[in-house]
Known about the structure:
The protein has 13 helices and 14 strands. With 375 residues, the chain is of the alpha/beta class. The strands form 3 sheets. It has a 7-stranded mixed beta sheet, sandwiched between helices. The chain starts with a helix and ends with a strand.
Amino acid sequence: MKNHFVKLFVMSVVGLFLLAVSGPALAADTIKLGVAGPHSGDLASYGIPTVKAAELVVKKVNAAGGVLGKQVELLVEDDVCKPEVATNTATKLISQKVDVVLGHICSGATKAALGIYNDSKIIAMSPSATNPGLTQSGDYPNFYRTIASDDAQAKLEVDFALDVLKLKKIAVLHDKGDYGKGLAEFAKGFLEADSRGEVVLYEGITPGAVDYSAVVQKIKRSGAEAVIFGGYHPEASKIVSQMRKKRMKTIFISDDGVKDDTFIKVAKEYAEGVYATGPKDVSKNPMAIAANEAHKKAYGADPGAFFLNAYAAALALLNAVEQAGSTDYDAVAKALKSKDVATPLGNIHFDERGDATGVGFSMYQVQNGVYVELK
């Protein structure tokens, strides 16, 4: 009998201990939002604005009571925009029990990470990964994005060259990456399908090279009236600078990988007149105005590339969790595709492929040291 009472006493103590432990654990339970992208290195100017967008959204959401009565926790991981690093980044976020992911930023890094997230039934949403195959191949049902794909971007560039600038001879360059080469292939295809245009040079360059004089010389010999470049600003700034130093007036048209203030800062006066496609200007949207002002107040500067796309993605992900009533993969996916959410890009939801409705690209030009949207 004595042993029986001892057992009951021990069980009671253990029960009280477990209750004491489980109470705070439940209270500390959070919705975990992963943020993955380049937060260091040459392309950090593309990734850091997404981190800041997530911070601002999470701060606002948490102040209003969080999601499903829980606070949102940010898990921020750097992939340096490199596929081989992105796989480790994704694995680390999975190990930290992430619920949804905002990222990645570069198409190559995004592609490398998506399979890992898919295997764990984790939804990832990018503000900037534009490679068409990410949604069109059907390989990544867990992927969504708040930016249009490169086929739309390349079509705009080609139409602008042929219809607006009335050019005929075009050189098409790319950086051999998933993003740059994919865009260049679309541009080449659109040009070859239009009898008004001729691809006089199609060339891949080596990212990170110090000197691009060889390809610049090829551009000159080809007689190209313009270059359409698929890639990022570090290479574009070097190519444009070397072209202008050789007194070449060849028009330079590029993409949202170049439509960044860092390009202008590096290329300096040689950036003047360069064209680049980028997300449509939504600066008059009240939510966009509020988001930009919040950024200036919090960080003392204007936001960088893809900030509003990232802000929209963070809102869309957290809204979908709220609408789904849980972090269940299928429920969140259904909410993303069926429930509109108000964002700085407008009211959006996602089609069956994962592309956001109503988003698109505009053409910009560097004028007096700033990118100006062309109407």
